[in-house]
């Protein structure tokens, strides 16, 4: 009997085998190469098509959209007191907010009724500030608060400072009234969190300027509109951080509470909220900082306080006055930041510190409350305790010193500052701005969409295409490209600084400890403040806005990159060292490539920070969209153009955010 031996069949090629084999024979083109090819094609076409179809618009010219927005504003103004939507909705909201702001102002800053002074004068406010800071923080923070508030009075800026504080407190109160419940809901519900996230991303992407113009359309100018704008701008951090805090409570703790029969409400009140209190307080801190930044900028819509002092000084190039008022804003920001930070850490510090003084804390707080009440009574009753004494001599000296320093810098450093300005302006900004503004609009749009697809994927490309189309529709394409040029140039400089200092901080714990506190302090200051010193050095120009934007955006980029470098596994670095790599090779071949996601995230945050600051630079001659927004507030016939400029700023922010976030996700995948 013969046995037939079958010939073994050849194994079939799997579906993945062919691409793998093809991959061995071909080399995948990287995204940087594709982006470079797009830019080269752009440069070639620019040389051929320069100056054609640029959609330029003169400063005084209006499009049909701008005129329609002007007519809409006039129509709303004419029917504000007869239209039911305004009578029973917008006007009522404005009335409630206005009453709240007025109440707080009469309490601490403005004369109340027949009284020539507020209900609580300077002595009572200082006493309350010190007591509250001690109660929620510690005695060091209390001393800082007392010194800070007293210093604002010595500057001769007591009433403007209290107006700013009144608007900030009113906005924070309203913001937290909505933000904390929404944050808890988002922390408990995945579905609601998914719904809220795009809105929060959008709200945090928009620069502060953008909130102002639309709100004046519905709520007029003044404290109410400023407070509502501040609420919208300041609420997202509290919502997001509260949701994050609730979600980070250990699941085992929640399960233990459930197993003991706790209801959903009891679990929230007894477990989730107490265990997430510290993080929620940090969210309150971020809300206060955002509110203070917004309140100062809201001076453009006639909000009272320190903001108008700074704006008027900037517009008249009065560096001394601007510096004095800016310093008061910084002092207030530092005090509010330290108080809320200390409040978040107080319980943990108390647990970790065994001190005999702790048992006396309650009796001492009771005595302190009594002292605060006495000070409030004195400030309510006696003029000497209500009106801050002195004539602001300290502020005059500060302004004089700032003017003297400015004159010295202009006399002795003008050669250096002008050289720096000319190198960056002529060597980097002007060529890039010319490329953007003198290229045909459709060519720039196609390049932006192509780069969006290459860097962020198809979804980012579709978003970019939509933003480009809407930018054309605003009628401000040329101004948008000018702002885009300034933003991208500033972002490049931010990333250079971010990489240099971020790598240094990430590789050295000592350097990180030395530099990080300064970066934290820099992020506390409102954007307005950054313009003042650079106005003194470089005068009123777009370069001033760019330098201020770089200084404003660099701290966040440095911190993100430092954290990314530090996250690279030590074993990987040790392996590279044992293989003979020097420091430069370890940084460029190991740490930076492995920190791609951190670099992309730093670019995203740097872009958003820079865009907001470049737009604010419209106050000091930066021009473009920032100028259009400011002109819209000051000149009624340009209101529609300013509103369209605000929309254009939003579109730029959304486009930047979608591309860089998508690129960050692809880098970390």
Mean pLDDT, rounded to whole units? Answer: 84
Radius of gyration over all CA atoms, rounded: 28 Å
The gross shape turns out to be globular
The number of E-state strands comes to: 0
In percent, how helical is the residue content? over 70%
Poorly predicted tracts of residues? 1-26
Helix and strand succession?
A: HHHHHHHHHHHHHHHHHHHHHHHHHHHHHH
Counted by DSSP, the helix tally is 30
Strand fraction? under 5%
Instruction: Describe the largest sheet.
Output: none
Q: Structural class, from helix and strand content? A: mainly alpha
Spatial separation of the terminal alpha carbons: 62 Å
Report on the architecture of this protein.
Helix 7 (158-188) packs antiparallel against helix 8, helix 19 (414-438) crosses helix 22 (477-507) and helix 24 (527-538) crosses helix 25. The chain has 30 helices and no strands. The chain is globular. The termini are far apart. By secondary structure, the chain is an all-alpha fold. It has helices at 17-25, 31-49, 64-79, 84-108, 122-136, 139-154, 158-188, 190-205, 212-219, 223-247, 251-259, 264-275, 277-297, 306-315, 319-352, 361-381, 383-386, 393-412, 414-438, 441-456, 458-474, 477-507, 509-524, 527-538, 542-566, 570-578, 583-594, 596-616, 624-634, 639-668. Mean pLDDT is 84; it is low at 1-26. The longest helix has 34 residues, at 319-352.
């Amino acid at each position: 009997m013969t046995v037939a031996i079958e010939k073994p069949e050849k194994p079939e090629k799997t579906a993945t085998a062919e691409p793998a084999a093809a991959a061995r024979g071909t080399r995948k083109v990287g995204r940087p190469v594709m982006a470079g090819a797009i830019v080269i094609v752009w440069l070639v076409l620019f040389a051929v098509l320069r100056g054609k179809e640029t959609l330029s618009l003169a400063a005084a010219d209006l499009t049909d959209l701008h005129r329609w927005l002007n007519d809409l504003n006039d129509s709303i103004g004419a029917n504000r007191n007869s239209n039911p939507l305004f009578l029973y909705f917008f006007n009522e909201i404005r009335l409630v907010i206005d009453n709240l702001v007025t109440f707080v102002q009469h309490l601490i800053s403005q004369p109340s009724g027949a009284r020539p002074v507020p209900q609580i004068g300077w002595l009572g406010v200082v006493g309350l500030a010190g007591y509250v800071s001690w109660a929620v923080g510690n005695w060091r923070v209390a001393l800082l608060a007392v010194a800070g508030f007293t210093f604002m009075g010595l500057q001769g800026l007591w009433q403007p400072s209290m107006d700013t504080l009144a608007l900030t407190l009113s906005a924070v109160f309203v913001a937290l009234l909505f933000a904390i419940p929404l944050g808890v809901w988002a922390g408990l519900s995945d579905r609601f969190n998914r719904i809220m996230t795009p809105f929060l991303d959008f709200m945090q992407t928009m620069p502060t300027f953008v909130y102002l113009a639309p709100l004046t359309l519905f709520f007029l100018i003044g404290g109410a509109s400023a407070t509502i704008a501040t609420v919208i701008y300041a609420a997202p951090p509290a919502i997001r951080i509260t949701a994050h805090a609730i979600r980070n409570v250990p699941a085992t703790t929640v399960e233990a509470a459930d197993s003991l029969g706790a209801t959903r409400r009891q679990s929230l009140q007894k477990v989730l909220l107490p265990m997430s209190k510290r993080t929620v307080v940090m969210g309150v801190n971020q809300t206060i900082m955002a509110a203070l930044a917004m309140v100062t900028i809201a001076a453009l819509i006639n909000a009272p306080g320190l903001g108008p002092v700074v704006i008027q000084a900037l517009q008249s190039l009065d560096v001394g006055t601007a510096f004095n008022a800016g310093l008061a804003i910084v002092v207030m920001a530092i005090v509010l930041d330290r108080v809320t930070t200390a409040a978040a850490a107080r319980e943990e510090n108390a647990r970790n510190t065994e001190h005999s003084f702790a048992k006396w804390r309650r009796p001492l707080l009771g005595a302190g409350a009594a002292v605060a009440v006495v000070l409030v009574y004195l400030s309510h009753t006696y003029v000497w305790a209500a009106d801050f004494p002195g004539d602001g001599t300290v502020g005059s000296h500060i302004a004089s010193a700032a003017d003297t320093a400015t004159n010295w810098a202009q006399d002795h450093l003008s050669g250096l500052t002008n050289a720096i300005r000319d190198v960056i302006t002529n060597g980097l900004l002007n060529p890039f701005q010319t490329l953007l503004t003198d290229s045909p609009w459709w060519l720039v749009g196609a390049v932006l969409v192509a780069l969006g697809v290459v860097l962020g994927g198809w979804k980012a490309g579709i978003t970019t295409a939509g933003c480009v189309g809407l930018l054309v529709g605003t009628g401000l394409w040329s101004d948008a490209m000018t702002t885009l040029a300034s933003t991208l140039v500033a972002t490049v400089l931010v990333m250079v600084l971010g990489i240099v200092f971020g790598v240094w901080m990430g590789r050295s714990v000592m350097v990180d400890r030395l530099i990080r506190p300064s970066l934290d302090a820099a992020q506390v200051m409102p954007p307005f403040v950054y313009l003042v010193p650079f106005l003194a050095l470089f005068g009123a120009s777009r370069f001033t806005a760019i330098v201020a934007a770089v200084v404003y955006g660099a701290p966040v980029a440095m911190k993100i990159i430092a954290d990314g470098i530090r996250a690279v596994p030590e074993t990987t670095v040790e392996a590279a060292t044992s293989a003979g790599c020097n420091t430069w090779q370890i940084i460029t071949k190991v740490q930076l490539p492995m920190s791609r996601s951190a670099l992309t995230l730093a670019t995203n945050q740097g872009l958003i920070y820079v865009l907001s600051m470049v737009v604010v630079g419209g106050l000091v001659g930066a021009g473009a969209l920032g100028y259009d927004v400011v002109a819209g507030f000051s000149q009624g016939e340009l209101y529609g153009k300013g509103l369209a400029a605000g929309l254009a700023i939003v579109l730029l922010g959304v486009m930047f955010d979608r591309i860089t976030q998508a690129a960050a996700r692809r880098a970390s995948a």
